[in-house]
Amino acid sequence: MSTETQEPAADLLEKEGDAAADYLEGLLDIADLDGDIDIDVEGDRAQVSIVEINAGELKSLVGDDGKVLDALQELARLAAAQATGERSRLMLDIAGFRLARRRDLEALAQTAIDEVTETGEPVRLAAMNAFERKIVHDVVTNAGLVSESEGVDPDRRIVIKPAS
Question: Which position among 2, 17, 53, 120 has the lowest Cβ density within 10 Å, counted as fewest Cβ atoms?
Protein backbone atom coordinates (compact mmCIF):
# COMPACT_ATOMS: atom_id res chain seq x y z
CA MET A 1 0.00 0.00 0.00
CA SER A 2 1.48 3.38 -0.95
CA THR A 3 1.85 6.19 1.57
CA GLU A 4 -0.54 8.42 -0.40
CA THR A 5 -3.45 5.97 -0.07
CA GLN A 6 -2.91 4.86 3.53
CA GLU A 7 -5.61 5.77 6.00
CA PRO A 8 -4.57 7.78 9.05
CA ALA A 9 -3.68 5.44 11.93
CA ALA A 10 -6.68 6.42 14.09
CA ASP A 11 -9.10 5.79 11.21
CA LEU A 12 -7.51 2.40 10.54
CA LEU A 13 -7.80 1.43 14.21
CA GLU A 14 -11.46 2.51 14.28
CA LYS A 15 -12.09 0.43 11.16
CA GLU A 16 -10.40 -2.56 12.88
CA GLY A 17 -12.60 -2.11 15.94
CA ASP A 18 -15.76 -1.82 13.85
CA ALA A 19 -14.95 -4.95 11.83
CA ALA A 20 -14.16 -6.96 14.96
CA ALA A 21 -17.32 -5.69 16.67
CA ASP A 22 -19.45 -6.72 13.67
CA TYR A 23 -17.89 -10.18 13.71
CA LEU A 24 -18.39 -10.57 17.47
CA GLU A 25 -21.96 -9.29 17.29
CA GLY A 26 -22.72 -12.02 14.75
CA LEU A 27 -21.11 -14.58 17.03
CA LEU A 28 -23.23 -13.43 19.99
CA ASP A 29 -26.36 -13.70 17.84
CA ILE A 30 -25.49 -17.23 16.70
CA ALA A 31 -24.74 -18.31 20.27
CA ASP A 32 -27.89 -16.54 21.53
CA LEU A 33 -25.88 -14.61 24.14
CA ASP A 34 -26.46 -11.05 25.33
CA GLY A 35 -23.62 -8.57 25.59
CA ASP A 36 -22.90 -4.94 24.81
CA ILE A 37 -19.91 -4.27 22.60
CA ASP A 38 -17.65 -1.31 23.37
CA ILE A 39 -15.00 -0.13 20.92
CA ASP A 40 -12.07 2.05 21.92
CA VAL A 41 -8.65 3.02 20.64
CA GLU A 42 -5.88 3.03 23.23
CA GLY A 43 -2.46 4.07 22.05
CA ASP A 44 -1.67 2.14 18.88
CA ARG A 45 -4.27 -0.57 19.40
CA ALA A 46 -7.97 -1.05 18.83
CA GLN A 47 -9.74 -2.44 21.89
CA VAL A 48 -13.06 -4.22 21.82
CA SER A 49 -14.91 -5.32 24.94
CA ILE A 50 -17.98 -7.46 25.28
CA VAL A 51 -19.69 -6.27 28.43
CA GLU A 52 -21.84 -8.76 30.26
CA ILE A 53 -25.54 -7.95 30.61
CA ASN A 54 -26.55 -11.07 32.54
CA ALA A 55 -23.99 -12.11 35.18
CA GLY A 56 -22.10 -15.26 34.23
CA GLU A 57 -23.65 -15.60 30.76
CA LEU A 58 -20.41 -14.93 28.89
CA LYS A 59 -18.25 -17.26 30.99
CA SER A 60 -18.17 -19.82 28.16
CA LEU A 61 -16.66 -17.18 25.85
CA VAL A 62 -13.77 -16.67 28.29
CA GLY A 63 -13.04 -20.34 29.00
CA ASP A 64 -10.50 -21.76 31.43
CA ASP A 65 -7.70 -19.24 32.02
CA GLY A 66 -8.99 -17.15 29.09
CA LYS A 67 -8.19 -19.76 26.44
CA VAL A 68 -11.47 -19.32 24.56
CA LEU A 69 -11.05 -15.55 24.85
CA ASP A 70 -7.58 -15.82 23.27
CA ALA A 71 -9.00 -17.86 20.39
CA LEU A 72 -11.86 -15.38 19.86
CA GLN A 73 -9.35 -12.53 19.91
CA GLU A 74 -7.45 -14.20 17.07
CA LEU A 75 -10.67 -14.63 15.09
CA ALA A 76 -11.61 -10.97 15.72
CA ARG A 77 -8.11 -9.96 14.53
CA LEU A 78 -8.63 -11.98 11.35
CA ALA A 79 -11.96 -10.23 10.74
CA ALA A 80 -10.27 -6.86 11.30
CA ALA A 81 -7.37 -7.75 8.99
CA GLN A 82 -9.78 -8.85 6.28
CA ALA A 83 -11.60 -5.51 6.52
CA THR A 84 -8.47 -3.34 6.56
CA GLY A 85 -5.93 -5.31 4.59
CA GLU A 86 -3.51 -4.81 7.49
CA ARG A 87 -2.32 -7.08 10.31
CA SER A 88 -4.33 -6.39 13.48
CA ARG A 89 -3.07 -6.13 17.07
CA LEU A 90 -6.59 -5.66 18.40
CA MET A 91 -7.21 -6.55 22.04
CA LEU A 92 -10.43 -8.25 23.08
CA ASP A 93 -11.85 -8.40 26.58
CA ILE A 94 -14.94 -10.33 27.58
CA ALA A 95 -16.83 -9.75 30.83
CA GLY A 96 -13.87 -7.82 32.27
CA PHE A 97 -11.61 -10.90 32.33
CA ARG A 98 -8.50 -9.14 30.97
CA LEU A 99 -9.06 -6.08 33.16
CA ALA A 100 -9.27 -8.25 36.28
CA ARG A 101 -6.23 -10.26 35.15
CA ARG A 102 -4.28 -7.01 34.61
CA ARG A 103 -5.03 -5.92 38.18
CA ASP A 104 -3.99 -9.32 39.56
CA LEU A 105 -0.73 -9.20 37.59
CA GLU A 106 0.04 -5.66 38.73
CA ALA A 107 -0.41 -6.79 42.35
CA LEU A 108 1.77 -9.89 41.75
CA ALA A 109 4.47 -7.71 40.18
CA GLN A 110 4.36 -5.28 43.11
CA THR A 111 4.75 -8.13 45.62
CA ALA A 112 7.77 -9.43 43.68
CA ILE A 113 9.22 -5.91 43.42
CA ASP A 114 8.91 -5.51 47.19
CA GLU A 115 10.69 -8.85 47.70
CA VAL A 116 13.53 -7.97 45.30
CA THR A 117 13.91 -4.55 46.93
CA GLU A 118 14.00 -6.08 50.41
CA THR A 119 16.31 -9.05 49.71
CA GLY A 120 18.34 -7.84 46.74
CA GLU A 121 17.81 -11.29 45.20
CA PRO A 122 16.13 -11.99 41.83
CA VAL A 123 12.56 -13.33 41.83
CA ARG A 124 11.30 -15.74 39.18
CA LEU A 125 7.60 -15.65 38.45
CA ALA A 126 5.38 -18.42 37.09
CA ALA A 127 5.08 -18.91 33.33
CA MET A 128 2.90 -16.33 31.56
CA ASN A 129 1.73 -15.54 28.06
CA ALA A 130 3.07 -12.51 26.18
CA PHE A 131 0.15 -10.25 27.19
CA GLU A 132 0.72 -11.04 30.87
CA ARG A 133 4.51 -10.64 30.66
CA LYS A 134 4.11 -7.20 29.05
CA ILE A 135 1.99 -6.01 31.98
CA VAL A 136 4.56 -7.22 34.53
CA HIS A 137 7.51 -5.77 32.56
CA ASP A 138 5.76 -2.36 32.52
CA VAL A 139 5.15 -2.39 36.30
CA VAL A 140 8.75 -3.43 37.00
CA THR A 141 10.15 -0.75 34.67
CA ASN A 142 7.99 1.92 36.32
CA ALA A 143 9.35 0.81 39.72
CA GLY A 144 12.93 1.29 38.50
CA LEU A 145 13.91 -2.39 38.59
CA VAL A 146 14.98 -4.71 35.79
CA SER A 147 13.03 -7.62 34.35
CA GLU A 148 13.76 -10.10 31.62
CA SER A 149 11.95 -13.06 30.13
CA GLU A 150 13.56 -16.47 30.11
CA GLY A 151 12.59 -19.82 28.66
CA VAL A 152 10.38 -20.61 25.71
CA ASP A 153 6.60 -20.58 25.37
CA PRO A 154 4.52 -21.94 26.94
CA ASP A 155 6.97 -21.97 29.87
CA ARG A 156 8.35 -18.45 29.33
CA ARG A 157 8.58 -16.54 32.61
CA ILE A 158 9.86 -13.26 34.00
CA VAL A 159 12.82 -12.77 36.30
CA ILE A 160 12.82 -9.53 38.28
CA LYS A 161 16.21 -8.21 39.42
CA PRO A 162 17.48 -5.20 41.32
CA ALA A 163 18.57 -2.26 39.18
CA SER A 164 22.34 -2.33 38.59
Answer: 2
